[in-house]
Amino acid sequence: MADALSVVLSFPPENVAKLSAKKYEEEVHTYMKRLNQLPPTTWTKAIDKKNLLDFLNPEVNSLPYLATLRAQTDTVGKDRKAIEHLVNQCAVFFATFDPIQVRYLGSQWTELVVWLLDILPKLGISDHSTVTTAMLRLDPTAGTFTSTHLRLLRACLQAGVPSQALPILDKDIYAFPVDQRKEIPDELLSEDVELSNGFITPKSGFTIKLKPEYVLEYYLLGAHIYIGRRNFSRARLFLEYVVLHPSQQQTVSALQVEAYKKWVMVGLLAEGKSYPLPKTHGAGVMKNIRAVAKPYDVLAECFERRDWRKYQAEMDAGTQTWHEDGNLPLVKEASTALIRYRVMDLQKTYATLPVSRVAAYLGFKPEAALQYLLDVISSGHLHASIAPSHDNSAANAVLRFHELTPSMTNLTADNELAAQTKRIEDLATYVRDADRRLQLTKEYVEHQKRQRRTGPDADLADQMDLTWDAPVPGLGEEGDEDIMAS
């Protein structure tokens, strides 16, 4: 075992910081071959009555530490104390591992994450921060979509802690794992790549083979979480990703229909009206989606007309539909929001109104109307105040609408501008990477050659189409003569 331990501890070399990416690659592959030659018991057998993990530093010896954890999770059995110890060791490893080293054991890294997500609920543990820490340590952008993204969302929702997925959900997806084209040289795993899609590929082991429905489910579940947290702008974005998903022959998936239904309700809650259809939507696909989701469009029409009674009638008539769709809470919340928007619309016409007028408009008693207005004002939905009457009666109190102060408007605009600037900066990084990869393709090189030949300064002779079209079968010289004769 002493010889095995010396092999395990032989990497990284002392001069690792001075190694070039190519030399580092050679050292890693040589080390991996030596590890593979060790007997399987190396990872599970005690050394001087100590666990092999006790001899390793997860930050320095990330490769053998990961291999040891994987081997021991496979053999731990049902011993709860041993399982809890491994869970703690996983937490230490995922918080400190070397992101470069684990790129060479992507499959084992993913398997360890899957094991941890499966074992946590069995131990009654709802804290999934260890997994989000691991994902962000491997890829700080979390921008290359993997199967782990979806697994984490499912686990958090099943455990009733959806907010724990936000560190990953809040990161924008900019790429999907794809194989490198043959004409593009493979990037070394040890290279300091700017974006993670350079090392997270279908062959890397960091994800299973992805299907379109996995992506749609991820965005739909993410929208659920954002709706629950009242982050309607983010929910709208996720739902539109699903609705706008490309489809063949204008076919529509059930996930797209479900997303559209929620998209309609989110628009009513957030803006008091349906969101305008995305400019890039396919007319045929959208027509098919709306045909299935027509009851929701009917609700939206009632809402936009501020016809509360009609909305209530439609809501009651379709209770079973909303319940089966899982949207009954949203439909009921929109009913409440409709009353709020009716009050907010009054601000377009009036500066002040007696509460008695508001009560008559809403169909409330003055006391109930006064309490409702106070609640809406305190929640921040209505920028107004209530001036009490001399006799302290609810009917004679006065509702005064207030305009947004310049400072409030400027603060909101500044926050939105800062967020937009950050998104543009991130997008520019992703575009640069996409351009770099595009310029390495054969098609791009040929396009550039054609551009040089057909540019304004190119020789006219070079611009001639010199391609030769083969004769149509059955048309020889006689055929040509027949055509000319006709």
Name the descriptors:
3 domains; Arc Repressor Mutant, subunit A; disordered C terminus; 486 residues
Put the structure in a nutshell.
This protein has helices at 2-8, 21-36, 62-75, 80-96, 106-122, 129-138, 147-158, 166-169, 212-228, 232-243, 254-271, 283-292, 294-304, 308-317, 319-325, 328-346, 355-362, 366-378, 406-439, 442-454, 477-485, and strands at residues 352-354, 384-387, 398-401. The chain has 486 residues and is mainly α. Helix 5 (106-122) packs parallel to helix 7, helix 7 (147-158) packs across helix 9 (212-228) and helix 11 packs parallel to helix 16 (328-346).
Structural class: mainly alpha
Specify the overall morphology: elongated
Largest sheet: 3 strands, antiparallel
Continuous helix count: 21
Distance between the termini: 93 Å
CA radius of gyration is 31 Å
Per DSSP, what share of the residues sits in E-state strands of 2 or more residues? Answer: under 5%
Provide the domain count. 3
